[in-house]
Amino acid sequence: MNYAQILDKMPPAASRQLLGQDWIKSAAGHGIEAREAFGNEDVLRKLRAALQPDEEKLLRLIVVRFGSRPFTPAELEKETADWAAALVKTALTGLRRRGLIAAFRKSWGDRLFLLPQDGLRGWQAVFFGPGCDVVGHGDGAGSQRNAGSDYNARLRQLYEQGDKPRQGLALDLFLLLNYADLHELPLTQRGALHKRHVQRMTALLGFDETDLAGCGLQFAHADTYPVSLAAALDFLQRLGLLHRIRDRLLLHKPRLRDWLATDEARQSEMLYRLWTEHRFPEDVDLQHAVCLLDKLAAGTKIRLSRLAAELNRRETLAGGEEEGARFSLGLVQKWLQPLRAFGWLDWEPEDSGDVSVSWLHPVRYEQRANEERKTAKPSAFLYVQPDFEVMIPPECPFTVRWEIARFAELVKSDRMAVYRLTKESVQRGADHGTPPEQALELLESHARHGVPETVRLTIAAWGEQYGRVVLGGVTLLRCADAQLAEQVSRHPKIGRLLLEKIGDSDFIVPAGKMSDMMKLLDAAGFSPRQAADFQDEEEAPDPDGDPETETLKGIVYDQDPVQYLELETRLPTAEEMYPGMRDIPAVWYRESRGYHASTILKIVRQAVTWGAPVLAEVEGGAVAVWIPRRAVERGEELTIELSDGAGGNRTVQAGRISRIRILLPGVS
């Protein structure tokens, strides 16, 4: 989950309050969109200077220990066992007040806290530096040769399973969209595609279930769809390109036009963002690895042992060779293998047992920001062969390829695609809005060496033969005799719905207008009768309408445990953080002074209850901040256990504390 999604879940007043903070306004003044400021590295570096020391310390711990994984108060308490609990609560409240950490409430009242994904990316760079220059070059820091033959064998097996030609996810989805354009996609009563469409659409994809096996995807209709098709349909539905209307799947034509007009690099960026938003790893070490990998430029090679060493330096990965091998295998299975299947990166096991990884194409804006501007693509890029094959190179825009796919049969889909012109395909194109003369014009406009004369003449001949005879469905209005037919035709409203008269007493009525005709005839006093076998044509669904809300969620279930939880925006009050504060003497937390040993014991017990530190002068030493852990009374012996928060502990007699004051973070 990212900050934009969290802001969308908030009540408008709470969202406005967060976006109205000075540091957000300052970012907006520098051209940074308010919602993006929460993850912008430059903005966060400036914000870091404004954080309280305890806030910064806690935020760094959350980045390292929890990443973007939801965590409970108990988990946070365990990680901050040496801290004063009140300091943790106050620092967490401060981070929530700034909108950096989100809180969610379960149905039974328990809370979960979360650092959003874009926050993890930004704060990782702020606390540890970008890391790309260090991680991206040089040999691995330590070989994994001795990590275990089982790991190496499994890596080799995964590599061989995925070692096949890839056409790229953008092209995979293009082929599915083209299939949906040329075929009706009715759904079963359970809401799934029919088996014949499932088989044909799955065959179009360049990846399969072995590529996605490590992701653990769970999805609707798992007994019908293979995981590869489910993942592809999920992308299309989340993009709003394919949506369900009643009992069928339809293309959303306006969104489709925009998508086809988008270049492949931008499409890949959008697809990768969807994948990271909804399939981000749960393991914190893998999350940090993904954030680092995202910042590597295309073509930069990195060894996973080097990446593991960098994560070890950042305290997000611990252990020796065995742990490093486990990390590498997990990263390959859960992240690198799917991305390799989508054609975005490549990875390869080395003889040393290490793994090298490199991006094939940039998939994030940061990776493309410093690229040189590409030269304009030529308008002539197709190769039309005398044998009626059309060869389409990678630089062909999707808009052109879309039109060709309407009137040509796909022979081979690769980086260089091959289509074949046939009589059936050209006539099919005419049925879908691309008549033969328009198809020929498109080929001539983009063919690098022109269209062979035989191809041109043949397409023209196919066009002349096609459409001279048309089959169409009509609705027939039948009158009892010619006199009644004359009366019906003279009616001003009924007459406008009559297309053509057949014989003396019958008329053709537009399909789908029978219901209107029945009402008009009845109102005019003709008392119409409907044939027993008649069914008025169902009003066609609007393919350009808004998709149903639920379809935008896709069919693959999110693993994010907080997406359906209630967002909690109310911050705790001082009375909630320090219950009973009004029932004790205010001087206990307002002034440092001496007390009787029995009173000091009461003060310390109250501090322990609140988890608050104390400012105390112990056994004649300098005044210092201590974290009281326990106050024990054994007869007249009153002892207090204190911690310095850095692992140092001491036990003193209450009477040896000459001055004391409770510190209430956020209050005093």
TrEMBL record:
GO MF terms held by the record: helicase activity
Sequence segments annotated as region (Disordered): 531-550
Coiled-coil features, chain-numbered ranges: none
UniProt keyword Isomerase present: no
ATP-binding in keyword set: yes
Keywords of the record: ATP-binding, Helicase, Hydrolase, Nucleotide-binding
Pfam families named among the record's database cross-references: Helicase_C_3
InterPro entries tied to this protein: XPB/Ssl2_N (IPR032830)
Domain Helicase XPB/Ssl2 N-terminal: 382-502
Composition skew (Acidic residues), residue ranges: 534-549
This protein's name: Helicase-associated domain-containing protein
